Amino acid sequence: FGSPNWWELVAVWRWSTRVLQSRLLRWWNIDPQLPLFCNADSYLFRPSRLPTPFEAAERHLPSHCNCTGPVGCKFPRGGPGRLEFCRIPVENGR
Q: H or E segment at 12?
């Protein structure tokens, strides 16, 4: 289970390019709601920091930069690990 395959890498680069391009477009158009700093930098173009398999997880990630406000980034602050989805414990019939 080492490195991701070629198709996974292409999907990561395609998604990363789309997010980065939308952020730069907002910056170019001087969007007042665009946060100054973006946490997505820790995840863009880094397959080891993203969920695997990526193609199945991609639909749950933001498809473009939609951050708002001074601290409104949709990505968590980059830590040492990989981006994980929130897990909510479910009680089963008690």
A: helix 6-28
Cα-Cα end-to-end distance for the chain? 38
Structure confidence at residue 27 (pLDDT): 92
Ranges 11-15, 37-41, 55-59, 71-75, most confident = 11-15
Give Cα separations from 72 to 33, 42, 45, 46, 68 (angstroms).
9, 16, 21, 22, 5
CA separation for the pair 65, 75 (Å, rounded) = 10
Closest C-alpha to 65, from 35, 88, 89: 35
Do residues 81 and 42 make contact, with C-beta atoms less than 8 angstroms apart?
no
Could you read off the pLDDT of 49-78 as tens digits, one per residue?
Answer: 888 888 888 888 888 888 886 666 777 776
Is there a contact between 55 and 5 (Cβ–Cβ < 8 Å)? no
Cα separations (Å) of 3 from 22, 28, 48, 62, 89? 28, 35, 8, 23, 30
